[in-house]
Amino acid sequence: MRKTTALRAAAAATAALLTMTACSSRRDEADRDTAAGGACKGQQTTGITDDTIKLGGIYPLSGPASAYGTISKGVGAYFQYVNDKGGIAGRKVRFIVRDDGYQPPKAVEEARRLVEREKVFAVFQTLGTPSTAAVWDYLDKQKVPQPFVATGASVWGTDARHPWTIGWQPNYVAEARVYAKYLKDTKPKARVAVLYQNDDFGKDLLGGFEKAVAGSGVKVVARESYEVTDPSVSAQMASLSRSKADVLLDVTTPKFGSQALAADARNTGWNPLHIVNNVASSAAVLKPVGFKNVQGVVSATYFKDPADPQWADDPDVKTYKEALHEYAPDTDPDNQFNAYGWAVASSLHKALDSMKCPTREGLRDAVRNLKDVRVGMLLPGVTMSTGHGDAFPLETMQLMRFKGERWQLFGKPVDTREEFGPLTK
């Protein structure tokens, strides 16, 4: 798959930073510890002992994507909950969170800190396509696992040159396929306007959508991009409204998702079906706009919404809510970003349990050999699977529509592998 300019720029920035500090990147003898016995001998055990696992995460706790920062609280609450239950295979998890402000150079700095100073076992969860792209070359050279990155860029599953990195959530092309199928089934002559972030995230979903609707009656008639440093997207929304498209595909991060929804609500002369991508679908994004202004908005998901009454008696959701109240009392359990953090942390737990060797190599291999693994917070019908030629753990999503004060699922889960075939390089 061809990398975009932004991805190449991030890699170049990484290379420059690596060159400047190459002398300090030498791993000490602890990195060459051996695991006991057989096939595990000679593999890396840095950051893992019989009693502990040290993990590091990099999130935008500040900056234009700071709404995502609360994901780390969902992850942290899960690990505290597990630690109080005895840990993972008897090992207590220490989770170290660093802030990159959604800035790729800062992400590289924090990755180096986690690996060289903190000596983490793995860098679990780098958030955002630009930040993840900036650090994966470094982590690959250091042979440090980068499991379940918090970005749906398809490159994490198609680039075999980076075996230490893998995604988790349905990739943006898979998500785009779900929206394309929905429109082809329900609005086969749809005219679509697209607002998208001008980076690999936005271009990945837009490109996947355009490919999925190719040859059908669904047409993209207008496109407007924005930069993550822009103060607002009001000008882009005004331009798109002039297209008179009957569908708006909103490919944004939370701050700009709220702005786009608000602009749509204010424009009484344009009333398109508004499809907002999953990463900007949290109630925390919609609430500032006013729930009355986002009725009928469509999105897609793959994990249980803790605010949905249908999961009120679900044992996994109940455990999540109780644990969040205990270990992160300052957070809202109904915030989907917190639920996302809990779900991805519990998914990593499953992968750690399946390691054949308690080593970095063991985790690298485990996340690429998942067979219909069930995770409590995922929707029924959604399981994790990877294997030879398939490095996408999740590729099934279900559509949802905002009604009243919450999202409501509709239709059936869509396995995009079955509907469109596997996504390959």
UniProtKB/TrEMBL annotation:
Q: Which Gene3D superfamilies match?
A: 3.40.50.2300
Tell me where the signal peptide lies.
Answer: 1-24
**Which of UniProt's keywords are assigned here?**
Signal
InterPro entries with a match to the protein in the record = Leu-bd (IPR028081), Peripla_BP_I (IPR028082)
Q: Where is the Leucine-binding protein domain?
A: 52-403
Q: Which Pfam families match?
A: Peripla_BP_6 (PF13458)
Q: Can the keyword Signal be found in this entry's annotation?
A: yes
Q: Which PROSITE patterns does the record cross-reference, listed alphabetically? A: PROKAR_LIPOPROTEIN
Q: Which family does it belong to?
A: Belongs to the leucine-binding protein family.
Give the protein's recorded name: ABC transporter substrate-binding protein
